[in-house]
């Protein structure tokens, strides 16, 4: 009888153990912010994004926007990969949120009335205002009052962007106009401003920041009126997801007071990012610096599209950017690096000189790494990028660790693995590690982003 009891107990314990394994495997695929295993290799922050809101737009297959980039920073903060699911049906988005298929829903603040006890609202990422754009000859001073605005737009044909109709301001505007004809459009602001410039209609209502970014191509177009009401994007989160909610609120409070936030804000709202990702020859160019990248890259045998991809993720093609660490210019060169190539900090702010030093640095990195003959081009580029971002010392540490544990130091997958492990005490205290502790998440994200853009650029007919 005693033996039967022991056998039965052993069987029950075995079944319980199997159940725990199955549960662990099931949890390993959950979204970021949910209960996950410590051994999970990649978390996901999944966001259902309303395609009609300002702060998010897609261009040539790549997504942009202040809202989108802020969410990417948050995803990096919690060690997750951002996945955007474009949506134009808010009901479907809210259903996805309720069933934990997404972590967040981003839409216009007008829809906060949809919230109930199962949904909480997170602080907005930024506020926006709407403007009326028209030919300058329609302008009547900078502070047009609504009664004058009513007369100004009377009998005029206009276009209203779709996202404006989701705001409270839209209702105020409808109440204030008479004898006016306006149609609603889902087209992007650049195309609509182009049509306005060709006088296909008389005015356009769109988000102020987007208008300012894209207005430089159309010098005859100006803002003739700014609606005083500010509108905010709304972030919805499942009320059960308290860990992610608390993480977001605390992160946003700190991030909005950081130099990185200032850099990001300036990139979008003061440095005219749209001018860098679009041009009149939009299908034929990557940036305004294509010719410069081509001529400089040709001297060293690099693919100019690869260099362009680095520049995009370093500076968004802004030659006057200075990072919080002091990196300068379009390729974000540190003054100490410039001096090592006998170039002064003043000279390095010249785009041509900046690119030239970046190419010299890439060549120096590649020679120092001493790749084996059978190393693939992909692995070479990834490891070189990691050095460009993190410094060659940390990458060499990771390669030494790969060798120690019987893995290939010329394989990016292996190097990336040990760059991440350098944040763990067992690894960064190893005698072969020279550069100490290192958090590799930012570098891995940089490599992935640059290689992704490089792949997109190679598909262009340039």
Low-confidence segments = 4-41, 140-147, 274-283
Global shape? globular
Number of strands: 13
- Structural category is alpha/beta
Separation, N- and C-terminal Cα atoms: 82 Å
Please tally the helical runs, counting DSSP H or I stretches of 4 or more residues: 19
Instruction: Report the mean per-residue pLDDT as an integer.
Output: 79
Question: What's the gyration radius in Å?
Answer: 26 Å
Query: Which percent band covers the strand fraction?
Result: 5-15%
Q: Please give the share of residues in helix.
A: 40-55%
Sheet with the most strands, sense and barrel status: 6 strands, mixed
Summarize the structure.
This protein has helices at 2-27, 66-77, 90-98, 146-153, 168-176, 189-197, 208-214, 242-255, 259-269, 274-277, 290-300, 304-315, 335-340, 351-369, 377-390, 392-404, 412-421, 425-428, 441-459; strands spanning 43-50, 57-59, 62-64, 80-87, 104-108, 119-122, 127-128, 130-135, 157-161, 181-185, 203-207, 221-226, 231-238. The longest helix has 26 residues, at 2-27.
Outline the structure in words.
The protein is an alpha/beta fold and 462 residues long. Residues 4-41, 140-147 and 274-283 have low confidence and may be disordered. Strands 1, 4, 5, 6, 7 and 13 form a 6-stranded mixed sheet that branches. A 5-stranded mixed sheet has the order 10-9-11-8-12. Helix 5 (168-176) links the parallel strand 9 (157-161) and strand 10. The protein is built from 19 helices and 13 strands. The chain has helices spanning 2-27, 66-77, 90-98, 146-153, 168-176, 189-197, 208-214, 242-255, 259-269, 274-277, 290-300, 304-315, 335-340, 351-369, 377-390, 392-404, 412-421, 425-428, 441-459; strands at residues 43-50, 57-59, 62-64, 80-87, 104-108, 119-122, 127-128, 130-135, 157-161, 181-185, 203-207, 221-226, 231-238.
């Amino acid at each position: 009888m005693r033996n039967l009891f022991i056998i039965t107990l052993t069987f029950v314990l075995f079944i319980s153990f199997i159940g725990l394994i199955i549960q662990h495997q099931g949890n390993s695929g959950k979204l970021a912010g949910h209960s996950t295993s410590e051994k999970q290799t990649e978390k996901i922050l999944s966001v259902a994004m309303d395609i009609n809101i300002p702060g998010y737009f897609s261009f040539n297959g790549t997504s942009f926007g202040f809202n989108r980039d802020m969410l990417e920073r948050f995803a990096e903060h919690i060690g997750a990969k951002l996945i955007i699911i474009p949506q134009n049906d808010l009901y479907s988005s809210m259903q996805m949120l309720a069933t934990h298929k997404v972590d967040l829903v981003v839409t216009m603040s007008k829809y906060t009335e949809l919230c109930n006890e199962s949904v909480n609202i997170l602080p907005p990422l930024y506020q926006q205002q709407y403007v009326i754009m028209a030919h300058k000859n329609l302008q009547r001073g900078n502070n047009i009052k609504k009664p004058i605005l009513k007369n100004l737009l009377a009998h005029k044909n206009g276009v209203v962007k779709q996202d404006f109709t989701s705001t409270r301001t839209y209702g105020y505007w409808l109440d204030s106009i008479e004898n006016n004809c306006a149609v609603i459009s889902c087209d992007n602001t650049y195309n609509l401003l182009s049509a306005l410039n060709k006088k296909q209609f008389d005015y356009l209502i769109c988000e102020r920041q987007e208008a300012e970014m894209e207005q430089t191509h159309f010098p005859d177009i100006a803002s003739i009126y700014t609606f005083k009401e500010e509108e905010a994007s709304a972030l919805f989160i499942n009320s059960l997801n308290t860990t992610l909610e608390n993480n977001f609120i605390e992160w946003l409070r700190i991030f909005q007071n950081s130099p990185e936030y200032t850099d990001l804000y300036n990139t979008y709202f003061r440095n005219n990012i749209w001018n860098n990702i679009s041009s009149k020859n939009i299908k034929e160019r990557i940036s305004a610096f294509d010719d410069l990248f081509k001529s400089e890259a040709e001297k060293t045998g690099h693919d100019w599209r690869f260099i362009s991809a680095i520049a995009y993720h370093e500076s968004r093609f802004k030659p006057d950017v200075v990072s919080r660490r002091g990196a300068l210019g379009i390729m974000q060169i540190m003054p100490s690096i410039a001096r090592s190539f006998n170039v002064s900090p003043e000279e390095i702010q010249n785009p041509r000189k900046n690119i030239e030093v970046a190419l010299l640095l890439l060549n120096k990195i590649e020679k120092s790494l001493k790749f084996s003959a059978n190393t693939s081009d992909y692995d070479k580029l990834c490891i070189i990028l990691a050095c460009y971002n993190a410094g060659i010392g940390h990458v060499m540490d990771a390669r030494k660790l790969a060798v120690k544990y019987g893995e290939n130091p010329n394989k990016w997958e292996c190097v990336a693995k040990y760059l991440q492990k350098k944040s763990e005490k067992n690894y960064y205290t190893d005698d072969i590690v020279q550069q100490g502790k290192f958090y590799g998440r930012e570098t891995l994200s940089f490599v992935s982003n640059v290689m992704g853009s490089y792949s997109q650029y190679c598909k262009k007919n340039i």
